[in-house]
Design a protein that fits this description.
By secondary structure, this protein is of the alpha+beta class.
Length: 262
C-alpha cells in the first residue's frame, strides 16, 4: 500500500480523534487527571483517545505495530509502525489552554514515512509524506526563508527528563542573537509551526518519539533542516531535537551543542 494511502488514513484518523479530544476539552471539569511526574499529567482524555486511535489502526492495518505514550507497545509483522501521542500538551489541555494537538507518525526502515499533527482548536492539519512534501490543510507549506534570527522567533522546550537549568543558556544565547523565544507547551505544535514558516526553529534536549517524529518529517519536507536521527532509536530511547530553517540551523545547533554537551 502506498504512503499516500497511509497518510490519508492518518489524516482522517487524527481529525476524528481530535473531535473526540475536543469534547473532553470542553468538558474537562469532569476529567480524571493523574500526575505521572513533575509537570507531567495524564487524563482520561489521553487514555481514551489513544485507545480509539489504536482500535482504528488495528482495524485498518492489523499487521502494523503500534507505539503510544499511554499504553503498551503492540508488535507488528509488516515492518511499519505507528507512533501515537493522543494529546500533546496535556498540561495545557487540563488547564484550559488551547494549545494541544493529536499526533501520529508512521515509521519503517528506521525512517519516519508519514506524519500528521492536528490542532482541533484551530482546525489545522499539518501533514507530510517522505518524498512527497508537507501540507497544511491540503495546501503546500514551506519553512521561512531569508529571515535572520534577530528578526524571528525560535521555540524551546524542556521536560522532567532533563535538568531545567539546561534550557537557561539556550534562552540566553537566543536573546544574545536578538531572537525572540517561545514555548507553547506542545512540542509537536511548535515543530508544525517551524514547518509552516511561523517559527524559525525548535530546540529540545530530550523528546520522546511520539512528540517529535511527525514534526521533524514535516520540517524536512518543508525545506527545513533536522538533525539526523534513526526513528527506531527515537522510539526506544528518545533523544535531542534540533531543527531550523536553512538560514539559522547551524547557529541553533551550535547554541544547543554548547549548552547540552558542556
Amino acid at each position: 500500500m502506498s504512503l499516500t494511502t497511509k497518510s490519508a488514513f492518518a489524516i482522517d484518523l487524527c481529525q476524528s480523534a481530535g473531535r473526540k479530544a475536543r469534547e473532553y476539552f470542553e468538558n474537562r471539569d469532569q476529567l480524571n487527571v493523574d500526575q505521572k511526574g513533575a509537570q507531567d499529567w495524564v487524563s482520561d482524555a489521553d487514555r481514551n483517545v489513544e485507545v480509539f486511535i489504536r482500535e482504528q489502526i488495528a482495524a485498518g492495518w492489523p499487521e502494523d505495530g503500534i507505539f503510544g505514550e499511554e499504553h503498551g507497545d503492540t508488535a507488528g509483522q509488516s515492518g511499519f509502525d505507528w507512533v501515537i501521542d493522543p494529546i500533546d500538551g496535556t498540561t495545557n489541555f487540563v488547564n484550559g489552554i488551547p494549545n494541544w494537538t493529536v499526533v501520529l507518525a508512521g515509521v519503517s526502515d528506521g525512517k519516519t514515512q508519514v506524519g500528521v499533527i492536528h490542532d482541533p482548536i484551530t482546525n489545522e492539519t499539518f501533514s507530510a509524506v517522505r518524498g512527497g512534501g508537507a501540507m497544511l490543510n491540503g495546501a503546500p507549506m514551506h519553512v521561512a526563508t531569508g529571515t535572520a534570527l534577530k528578526n524571528g522567533t525560535v521555540a524551546v522546550g524542556y521536560s522532567n527528563r532533563v535538568t531545567a537549568e539546561s534550557i537557561v543558556p539556550v534562552v540566553g544565547a537566543l536573546i544574545a542573537q536578538g531572537a525572540m523565544f517561545h514555548r507553547n507547551g506542545s512540542g509537536a505544535l511548535s515543530l508544525a509551526y517551524v514547518a509552516s514558516g511561523r517559527l524559525l526553529g525548535y530546540l529540545e534536549e530530550h523528546m520522546n518519539a511520539w512528540d517529535c517524529l511527525a514534526g521533524q518529517l514535516m520540517i524536512a519536507e518543508a525545506g527545513g533542516v533536522v538533525e539526523a536521527q534513526n526513528a527506531d532509536d527515537m522510539i526506544r530511547d528518545g533523544g535531542r531535537v534540533i531543527t531550523g530553517t536553512p538560514d539559522v540551523f547551524e547557529t541553533l545547533k551550535g547554541i544547543a551543542t554548547s549548552a547540552w554537551d558542556a
